[in-house]
């Protein structure tokens, strides 16, 4: 998809971080933008910013973990713009605390948003793209979907699943001669508020299990430092637009991390234990 001007981009998790950067980047290409998020305040700020620049924007409160909510998003998109050319299944969360002793709602929340949110997005928008004869789906995974992060089991599970789901969908659509393309976005550390996104505390009334052992505390500190030193979300958005134009599946944003999944698979091929 070379010419993006006048086309419609749907971005879940569009109120902050990578989602906000994607919305801005698509707007700069002359696209109409649909923002979807549970953070209505943040979403309205982005909506106002883009509208002032002349972009046609639709903001929809959407819980991507709920199938009905995502189908309502698709219906609202069609009602306003009549099409959906780019879908960024970008909404994502990270659970805090010990996943093995903490509340099960941590797992349910992370799996609901990170994995089922992607599934719901594909099921709602793929038929639209197939019918209109053009489309590109970008699923936000992570380098954690290629190389497991210690101490982040729910996040690892969901991001690995998104990579597998995206790769399978890419092959399936290509084999069937579909006009719809798929990309898997696997960023490393990015300056976002992902680690602080904790609405599940209010939603479920559960408290995460405290992280007490030294190893987990070290991992938490490593993650915080990594995010603080991460790349600008705008750089990620630039990579996404380039991949859409090139019809490229893999979007790896950090050159210095590209060898990590290679080393992992070499260990697997040699039947060596993880390191």
TrEMBL record:
<protein>
    <submittedName>
        <fullName>Unannotated protein</fullName>
    </submittedName>
</protein>
<keyword id="KW-0560">Oxidoreductase</keyword>
<dbReference type="Pfam" id="PF00106">
    <property type="entry name" value="adh_short"/>
</dbReference>
<dbReference type="GO" id="GO:0016616">
    <property type="term" value="F:oxidoreductase activity, acting on the CH-OH group of donors, NAD or NADP as acceptor"/>
</dbReference>
<dbReference type="InterPro" id="IPR002347">
    <property type="entry name" value="SDR_fam"/>
</dbReference>
<comment type="similarity">
    <text>Belongs to the short-chain dehydrogenases/reductases (SDR) family.</text>
</comment>
<dbReference type="InterPro" id="IPR036291">
    <property type="entry name" value="NAD(P)-bd_dom_sf"/>
</dbReference>
